[in-house]
Amino acid sequence: MARPSNRIDEELVCIDSVCHVLESTLGLVVGTPARVEPGKDPPDFWVQVDNVDTPVEVTSIIQRAAFRHHARQMAKTLKERALDARVLSGTYLLKFRRFPPVPHPRRKCDQPMYDAGLDYITDTANLDEEIEQVIFAESSKQIVLRKFSPFGATVEEILTNTEWAFESQENTRDLIDVAAQAKIEKLSKTGHSPRDTILALYDAYAFLSFDEIAECTADLLSLQAFAAVYWASAFAGRNNFIYPDQPGRDGGFITSTIAEWRGANSLPSEGKT
Question: Do residues 175 and 143 share a domain?
């Protein structure tokens, strides 16, 4: 047996999961996926399903590690600028609610957010603690700065999405909606119809169950634009049959224009809820 690669190729893991459910759960005849060269026009794969060439687009949804990296970078930048200005006195918490876009420290259009943060730190330097200051808000997505303590001289990032399961579902729903809309635009620009395409969603951290994902995305119009939407939701005990050097994943179709596909999955009962 081939040993799993140290580097996980999310697209190969996801397409194997899709084909596994189509073949093993739905009993369809599925050909070997043909991967489109990276950088070329979509789709990511072509898969023959019951003698019909079907485009499949794969997108990764939850990149919490990457998001935390950018959040930490913003906190570090604010700390460094406040130290350079000699105004940092106390401990400040930089809170990120529902995955807002994180401003880049070198992007000109993002500088007003950094300026607002530095102004708040300057204004509260001599206070023990202060009410929080919203430095970015769009719908329910926010970046908030608050002086937490008069002690120390630092700015720390806080990702509030990890505090409540409901918040996690809402965050994931938002990310899925954004990703689906981006895929619709990308496909349309290259002459492909989302209505003929399977959208395969890959959650790198798998912190929500299949049923939770199906429930929180049930009313998303962006998902209804696709022929089917697949959620590769959990690492499986099985091998990756198509790409043996990659891990296997279970998952299922959270929505589809084909009634028989809807809800079809390879998850054990305990993995669904």
Answer: no
